[in-house]
Amino acid sequence: MADIDNVARAKAVYDDLCATLDKRNWKYTKHDEDLTITFGIIGNDLPMDFVLGVDAQRQLLRMFSKLPFITPEDKRMDLAIATCVASDRLADGSFDYDITTGKIVFRMTASFRESKIGEGLFEYMINCSSVTVDEYNDKFFALSKGLISIKDFIDNK
Question: What is the pTM of this model?
């Protein structure tokens, strides 16, 4: 359980996050009860939905984007390899893959424990996450549908 100071700090970070997005007229949905916001972005191909939450106990900002498709069972090993390859190429964040369900989620975290954070971190997380998901979501989708091979995916830098 998060102590009172951690909860207060997390609430302040959440308020700063919302104020930053409001200042930029960003469209998002607030979930005050769990210090989380949700929003969507139109990319170059597939739609992208994001969750950005403040974890009071761990003193983390946690950003997630679940890709909008399920990998068919016959392509799951290829996607397991592809998510490892993609994650290895990233400067920040990672793709998490559940081989039993075929779901892919992009994840990025940043600690605010004993740190002062501000608009720059929020913007970085949103921008970096959206660019990364937009870069890979169509490649993962094409691989899952058999439109490209795992070799094509790996060779496509």
Answer: 0.91
